Amino acid sequence: MAEPVLAVDNLATHFFTRDGVVKSVDGVSFTVAPGEVLGLVGESGSGKSVTGFSIMGLIDPPGRIVSGSIRLKGEELVGRTEAEMRAVRGRSLAMIFQDPMMTLNPVLRIDTQMMEAVHAHENVSEKAARDRAVQALAQVGIPSPEERLSAYPHQFSGGMRQRVAIAIALIHRPALIIADEPTTALDVTIQSQILAEVQKLCAESGTALVWITHDLAVVAGLADRVAVMYAGRIVEQGPVDDVLDRPLHPYTHGLIGSVPGDSLPGKRLMQIPGSTPSLGRLPPGCAFEPRCSRAVEACRAAAPPLMQGAGGRAYRCINPVSAEEAA
């Protein structure tokens, strides 16, 4: 196998508040290979976005990375200064946000913003920077890219603004892109178009992609592998088809069962009872134990270790879901 573009090992990002320590990310490990798409899935508050911001070096006080390693193409990112991270962000590492207006300045034309992105990392002429911007817009499927460069963000639809944000992320052909639910606010047709474009671009350029989402349908069609997060930890990961067809962790099983499209007509949805625990007051054992129908006494005593399964599967559960139950 090729050397991973991204290797996250035992990452812990905590927030130190007056009410105590919030363990938003606690011992997360995964790798992403060149051209691979990893889906990072979980409920709101599970730690997905904080994991992405940690990789980008965008954690500010009262939060900080307290332990672990983040290696991009073999180079350690944890411990780098802000100036050092600015040299990496945009060139080797890029992020696509849920709201494209977090990327785009509403009072600057698109050409100004895209050319500034080029000049930030490369000493090239104005014409070369403009040509790169035109090429990037065409690459994400924006028609008449030369004409659209002179427009302002408010002159684009939501889907087109997101395509511009993706074009800016791709303009330096980074080794890794972190996408934080970038299609959530878009209608289904535009969402499917953008997903197809992103998948194609990753395959052609070899860019690795971490796609953060709560939508299992998106992950099923886009990702090569999936990692499921709960209460700051990855509770299951593996090839996307294996995990979705035969989940081992009860939380993954519950997420899949709660998707309306998988239910028989007239049958009640499988619901996960309760709600996500506060990351500042986690139970002493398995964080999912209070909501789990498969919990046994040992689940309350200690957090389960990461079990290694066949075919690259990994899960945190001492009483995993059987193949019959998954079916």
Protein architecture, described:
- With 327 residues, the protein is an alpha/beta fold.
- The chain has a single domain, classed as Rossmann fold.
- The protein has twelve helices and twelve strands.
- It has helices at 48-56, 82-88, 110-119, 126-139, 145-148, 158-170, 188-205, 216-222, 240-245, 250-257, 297-301, 323-326, and strands at residues 6-17, 20-32, 37-41, 63-72, 75-76, 93-96, 176-180, 208-213, 225-230, 233-239, 307-308, 314-315.
- The strands form two sheets. It has an eight-stranded mixed β-sheet with strand order 6-7-8-3-9-10-12-11, with helices on both faces. It has a four-stranded antiparallel β-sheet with strand order 2-1-4-5.
- Helix 3 (110-119) packs across helix 4 and helix 6 packs parallel to helix 7.
- The longest helix is centred in the middle third of the chain and has 18 residues, at 188-205.
- The relative contact order is 0.14.
Short description:
This protein is α/β, with parallel strands linked by helices and 327 residues long. It is built from twelve helices and twelve strands. The longest helix has 18 residues.
